[in-house]
């Protein structure tokens, strides 16, 4: 069995990438299984997805403790403990990181043991689609290449999965073309199977009854959500071009998360620790005084101060 | 002609925040945008009674975005929970155990799945008893928290996880959106209003006006939803604006059952609104489903013709 774990942020297409890989493997004649996992979090928050395929029936279910290949859709996840990216990674694991940086640079930053390969998939997507979130087919293609699948089943899998999502045929075709470019461009790593460690000892815990006052989660603080930073969700950051701002307050009014405040000169002050990068302020600014800048190094989502 | 009395200029929107950042709600959430603006009038002296839904994420253990109190209930019972909280406050004040100055507002937060569907009987009961509370429905027209399944608030033609486009139903959802405003109005609560996040002064004014009434104060907020409606998060205000400008989301209030439209749009063709969202893309690609689009337009036209005839 070959096991692939995808890590992304909600909305980047990690789940769809995992489905594309699973379908491509199935169309190649393998038994295949794919499933995503996401908590109550949303767009921008860490999510993972698992694809398993092999010649034999796949009995394993659920989370993936020993991946052969880990696909990282967003380099900021490398720094994010909530993403649990390093789980089960050994020297043999192939680690693909979506980043324009060289593998050696990523290795120097992250200290992960796996064998790293990189490709700037988001840059490729921006160049060809002009959209920041259209990377599911491209990630699926990279994973298919690293997992040793052929091009034709990959093409079909992209058509099927994107078709199911209601993507229009011309856009599917463009996705296929660009995905095959990524397929060709990614540097291939020789495939080595991870030796499973001996059976993990299991212990059982019997829960003890607690009265509701103890057993129910209670928060005895007010407004402590600010302790949690959501700045790492951003792909683009809104930046103020001060001399264009006419002080109209609209960015402050429309910001759903309330991370823009107005200073005494009627200029917006953006709380980048919490701004999720939705770009509402950029869209609504009547004088184009707020512009979107691509985040170069993603921050860390969900860190507690 | 309806006029705003308290909120006339954008710079009257209070600067203080009452729903703090750091929550797990999606970037660009239209429901959060509406709630944030509403709380600028409601303040912090509030007990929120939250039906399970997306807003659960606002107070997911161990963090809360609220400076006020928060109580969690099932999807079907938030108005009943509000009754309990209101009664407890009244009893404590009557017995002198809570000074009158420490009285709190009780505000129900419910999504459309809860409001239009599971909590409908509980809401009806609360209105019937004349419970003194606010009801804030953030309507994103589907069960969003569980992955955008069809709800009774889903409009005709929308694609959801459980109303896919198929040969039998090429235009997605076959049912019409339930008219919850009229269901509420039949109960004759003192105040009902619809709001949309792109119309902040209209929204603030309605919350300011509602404060004068004792009894159920019912709010229906358009929660434009980038995740479920499939558009870029930055377009939330634009989508909300087009919902209003096409006439699909009328901005109105009802005082003791008497309806006034607080803004009468010139009514752009509904295509302008539909085209912006992935959930309606199948109406335009690969072939234009003219009949379905005309059906949506005809219903909007009929609504506004009746509204004009009735002079509301």
From TrEMBL, chain A:
SUPFAM superfamilies associated with the record: 4Fe-4S ferredoxins, Pyruvate-ferredoxin oxidoreductase, PFOR, domain III
Coiled-coil intervals, chain numbering: none
InterPro entries the record matches: 4Fe4S_Fe-S-bd, 4Fe4S_Fe_S_CS, Oxidoreductase_gamma_subunit, PorC_KorC, PorD_KorD, Pyrv/ketoisovalerate_OxRed_cat, Pyrv_flavodox_OxRed_cen
Record's keyword terms, sorted: Iron, Iron-sulfur, Metal-binding, Oxidoreductase
EC number from the UniProt entry: 1.2.7.7
Enzyme class label: oxidoreductase
Domain of life: Bacteria
One Pfam family named in its UniProt record: Fer4_7
GO molecular function: 3-methyl-2-oxobutanoate dehydrogenase (ferredoxin) activity; 4 iron, 4 sulfur cluster binding; metal ion binding
Domain 4Fe-4S ferredoxin-type per the UniProt entry, residue ranges: 236-265, 266-295
Protein name (Swiss-Prot/TrEMBL): 2-ketoisovalerate ferredoxin reductase, fused gamma and delta subunit
UniProt source species: Nitrospira defluvii
Gene field: vorCD
TrEMBL record, chain B:
Highest taxon, organism lineage: Bacteria
One Pfam family this sequence matches: TPP_enzyme_C
Gene3D superfamilies per the UniProt record, alphabetical: 3.40.50.970
Sample GO molecular function, one term: thiamine pyrophosphate binding
Domain Thiamine pyrophosphate enzyme TPP-binding: 52-216
SUPFAM superfamilies, sorted: Thiamin diphosphate-binding fold (THDP-binding)
Keyword Oxidoreductase: yes
Transmembrane segments: none
Xref: InterPro entries: PorB-like, THDP-binding, TPP_enzyme_TPP-bd
GO BP term, pick one: small molecule metabolic process
Keywords associated with the record: Oxidoreductase
EC number: 1.2.7.7
Record's protein name: 2-ketoisovalerate ferredoxin reductase, beta subunit
Native source species: Nitrospira defluvii
GN (gene name): vorB
């Amino acid at each position: 069995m070959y096991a692939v774990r995808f890590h992304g942020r909600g909305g980047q297409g990690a789940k769809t990438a995992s489905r594309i890989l699973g379908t491509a493997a199935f169309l190649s004649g393998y038994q295949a299984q794919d499933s995503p996992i996401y908590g109550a979090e949303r767009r921008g928050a860490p999510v993972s997805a698992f694809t398993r395929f092999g010649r034999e029936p796949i009995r394993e279910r659920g989370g993936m403790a020993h991946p052969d290949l880990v696909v990282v859709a967003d380099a900021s996840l490398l720094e994010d403990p909530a993403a649990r990216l390093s789980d089960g990674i050994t020297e043999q694991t192939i680690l693909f990181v979506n980043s324009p940086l060289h593998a050696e640079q990523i290795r120097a930053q992250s200290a992960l043991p796996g064998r790293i390969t990189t490709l700037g998939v988001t840059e490729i997507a921006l160049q060809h689609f002009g959209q920041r979130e259209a990377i599911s087919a491209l990630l699926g293609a990279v994973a298919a290449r690293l997992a040793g699948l052929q091009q034709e089943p990959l093409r079909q899998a992209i058509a099927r999965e994107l078709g199911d999502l209601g993507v229009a045929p011309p856009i599917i075709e463009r996705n296929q073309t660009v995905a095959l470019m990524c397929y060709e461009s990614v540097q291939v790593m020789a495939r080595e199977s991870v030796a499973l460690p001996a059976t993990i000892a299991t212990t059982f815990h019997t829960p003890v009854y607690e009265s509701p006052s103890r057993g129910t989660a209670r928060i005895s603080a007010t407004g402590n959500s600010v302790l949690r930073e959501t700045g790492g969700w951003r792909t683009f950051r809104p930046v103020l071009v001060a001399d264009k701002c006419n002080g109209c307050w609209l960015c402050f009014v429309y910001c759903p998360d309330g991370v823009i405040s107005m200073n005494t000169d009627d200029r917006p002050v953006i709380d980048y620790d919490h701004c999720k990068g939705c770009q509402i302020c950029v869209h609504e600014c009547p004088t184009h005084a707020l512009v979107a800048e691509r985040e170069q190094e993603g921050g860390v989502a969900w860190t507690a101060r | 002609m309806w006029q705003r009395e308290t909120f006339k200029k954008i710079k009257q929107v209070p600067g203080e925040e009452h729903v703090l950042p750091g929550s797990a709600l999606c970037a660009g959430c239209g429901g959060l945008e509406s709630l944030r603006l509403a709380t600028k009038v409601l303040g912090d002296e509030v007990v929120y009674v939250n039906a399970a839904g997306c807003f659960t994420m606002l107070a997911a253990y161990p963090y809360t975005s609220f400076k006020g109190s928060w109580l969690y209930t099932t999807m079907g019972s938030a108005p009943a929970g509000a009754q309990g909280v209101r009664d407890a406050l009244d009893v404590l004040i009557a017995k002198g155990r809570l000074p009158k100055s420490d009285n709190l507002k009780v505000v129900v937060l419910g999504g459309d799945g809860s409001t239009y569907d599971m909590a409908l009987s509980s809401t009806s009961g609360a209105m019937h008893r004349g419970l003194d509370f606010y009801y804030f429905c953030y309507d994103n027209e589907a069960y969003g928290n569980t992955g955008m399944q069809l709800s009774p608030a889903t409009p005709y033609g929308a694609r959801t996880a459980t109303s896919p486009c198929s040969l039998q139903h090429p235009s997605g959802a076959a049912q019409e959106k339930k008219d919850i405003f009229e269901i509420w109005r039949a109960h004759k609560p003192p105040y009902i209003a619809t709001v949309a996040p792109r119309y902040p002064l209209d929204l603030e004014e309605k919350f300011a006006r509602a404060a004068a009434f004792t009894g159920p104060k019912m709010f229906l907020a358009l929660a434009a939803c980038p995740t479920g409606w499939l558009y870029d998060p930055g377009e939330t205000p634009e989508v909300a604006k087009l919902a209003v400008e096409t006439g699909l989301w009328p901005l109105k209030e009802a005082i003791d059952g008497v309806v006034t439209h607080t803004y009468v749009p010139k009514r752009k063709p509904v295509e302008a609104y539909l085209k912006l969202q992935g959930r309606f893309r199948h109406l335009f690609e690969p072939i234009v489903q003219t009949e379905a689009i005309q059906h949506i337009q005809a219903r909007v036209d009929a609504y506004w013709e009746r509204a004009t005839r009735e002079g509301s």
